[in-house]
Design goal:
Elements (H helix, E strand, L loop, with lengths): L1 H26 L4 E2 L4 E7 L2 E5 H8 L7 E4 L6 E10 L5 E12 L3 E4 L1 H7 L5 E2 L8 E6 L4 E11 L2 E4 L1 H7 L6 E6 L5 E10 L6 E5 H7 L6 E9 L3
Parallel strand pairs: 2-14, 3-6, 7-10, 8-10, 11-13
Antiparallel strand pairs: 1-15, 2-15, 3-7, 4-5, 5-6, 5-9, 9-10, 11-14, 12-13, 12-15
Length: about 230
């Protein structure tokens, strides 16, 4: 009887293993393994990118943003300037850092928790995709600005140089899953790959995601597999 039970258990294990292999095969090209490697992780707190005209309105005509420290991406920097954001319901968050350099359009990046606190229906978007995004007002020492659109929750993403993209086997607009180590570690899917000669290797997640995973600045993560390929 014992031998029969052992044989049944072994047969069941073989069947489960066979089904798992078949499931991976059926998944096809939408799930593709990529080389494992460390990706540095940066935590992006709520912040603002300003246009030239909005910087003038908030800080005074001709005001130049004051560089405080360089960020991970070449040419990007945190500024000394901060603003208050106000929703249509009158709820406010103070002290949002301005990031430079100036952009063509003003963009307010919030976490989902920030958006709920403000009562703002900010959509999940990639940076720069502002059409139809949420309205928001900004207040600075010299004045205020009301945006018909501009507030978003930034989609998690990884910046790659072309060399790093080749090393990891990804292309611009690919979507990958990423694993985080640690006692509260886990994995995140839906991570967009952004490739440019102007980028340095770095993953950006927001404070909600970092807190859920127990991740701090200076952490690293590993790409598990490719969920989909652009085109």
């Amino acid at each position: 009887m014992v031998g029969s039970i052992d044989g049944l258990v072994e047969a069941l294990a073989d069947e489960v293993s066979s089904r798992l292999r078949a499931g991976r095969a059926e998944a096809g090209p939408s799930v593709v393994a990529v080389p494992v490697g460390a990706v540095p992780v940066g935590i992006s707190a709520r912040h603002v990118h300003l246009s030239r005209s909005d910087a003038d309105a908030l800080f005074g005509e001709g005001h130049r943003l004051t560089r405080s420290k360089d960020l991970s991406q070449p040419g990007q920097y945190a500024c000394e300037e901060r603003v208050t954001v106000v929703s249509r319901s009158g709820k406010a968050l103070e002290g949002l850092r301005v990031l430079g350099p100036e952009r063509g359009r003003t963009q307010v990046e919030l976490s989902a928790s920030d958006a709920r606190a403000l009562g703002v229906a900010a959509p999940l978007r990639e940076s720069g995709d502002l059409d139809g995004s949420a309205p928001i007002s900004l207040c600075g020492p010299a004045g205020s600005v009301t945006l018909r659109e501009g507030a978003i929750i930034a989609r998690r993403h990884i910046h790659f140089s072309p060399e790093d993209a080749r090393r990891f086997g990804v292309a611009d607009r690919d979507v990958v899953a990423v694993s985080f180590p640690g006692t509260r570690g886990g994995s995140l899917g839906g991570v967009v790959c952004r490739v440019s000669k102007d980028y340095a290797l770095d993953m950006h997640i927001d404070t909600d995601e970092a807190n859920a995973l127990g991740v701090g600045q200076g952490a690293s993560a590993s790409i598990l597999y490719k969920e989909s390929s652009h085109g």
